[in-house]
Amino acid sequence: MITVADIMSTSLHTLSPQDTLASAAQLMADKRIRHIPILDEADQLVGLISERDLLAAKQSSVIKDTGENTPWTKVTIAQIMTKNLTTVDPKASVKSAAIYIQQHKFGCLPVVKKEKLLGIITDTDFVAVAINLLEIEELHASDEV
Length: 145
What we know:
Layout: H1 4-7, H2 21-31, E1 35-39, E2 45-50, H3 51-59, H4 61-64, H5 94-104, E3 108-113, E4 116-122, H6 123-144
Antiparallel strand pairs: 1-2, 3-4
InterPro entries: CBS_dom, CBS_dom_sf, Diverse_CBS-Domain
Domain CBS: 8-66, 81-136
Keywords: CBS domain
């Protein structure tokens, strides 16, 4: 069985709730990522911010309530981050995690063990698995010819 630990991303880029939307947007652009786990001072996972959250915030009252000309440097991640997160254990099967992400339309699942963030698994990770499986299938098909 392939587990979440086998395919999760462990090179994590995190921010704190006190960081700004501007810092989240910059980190996403610099690292070419769409999800950022949010950790508190004790390195506990307290939230998640996604590229989709940032796009929604541009149109929401969160930004407008602070004044039309207020830059993203004044709005904190805590104001818009998702707080009640669904997480996955590193020993969970990739299949069950993929089904869960598909059914709930999540873009990612933080991978947590004993309240410690170990990694993140994203829809992109599942696409990579699918590509690898298709390549293996193609190799077996060409061997049979």
